[in-house]
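Input.
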Amino acid sequence: MLIHPRIHHRRAGHRFASGLTLIELLVVLMVLIAVAGIVVPNLTDLRFGFDGDRKTASEIATEKTLMEVRAAILGPDGKKGLWSDLGEREADLPQDIAELFIRRAGWPNFDPNTRLGWRGPYVMDSGARDGANDPAILDGWGRPIVIQTPTALTIRLVSAGADGILETPPATAMPTLAACGDDLVLFLRTADTRS
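Output.
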C-alpha cells in the first residue's frame, strides 16, 4: 500500500508547512497595525514654519528644490559643489542662480590636476527663465528662486512664497520672520536664527 507523503509526515509527528496558523496570522496583523499607527500620523501631520500650519504641496516642493539648489552650491554630503569647486573663497559664492548654469567671467574652467574650477552646469536647465531671460530654478508656485547675499556668511536662497511677493529684505543679514512674510528662506552657511 502506498502512503501519500503528506499523510506520512503527519502520521510521523512532523508538521507540514502548508500555510500560516491562526496565531501566526494574528501576530503579523498586529505588527502591521502597529507599524501603520506609527507611519500614518507622520505622513499626514506635516507642519510648516512656527505657526503649526499644514504644508501645502507647493511648500513641500519648494523646500525640496531649495535643498537641491543648496547642494548644487555647497556640495551634497561632502561632495563637490560650485563653491567647493572654486576653492571655497567667499568672493566666489554665487550672486545669481544663473551662475549654476553659466560660468561667471573670471572663474577658471575645471582643472583635473588641481581639481579646482567651474565644472558646471551644476543643475539641469529646465528651460525656465527669470525676468532677465537668464536660466532660472522655479519654486513650487512656478516663480524663480533668488539668491540674496547681504554678507558672505548669511547668503540664502529665497522663494517668494504663496503670495508671489518677495518680502525678505535683501540687505538685512538676519531679517525677522515677520519681515520675511510668507517667503521660504534657506540659509546656506549659517543657522537660521530668525525670530
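The beta strands are 47-48, 53-54, 146-148, 156-159, 184-187.
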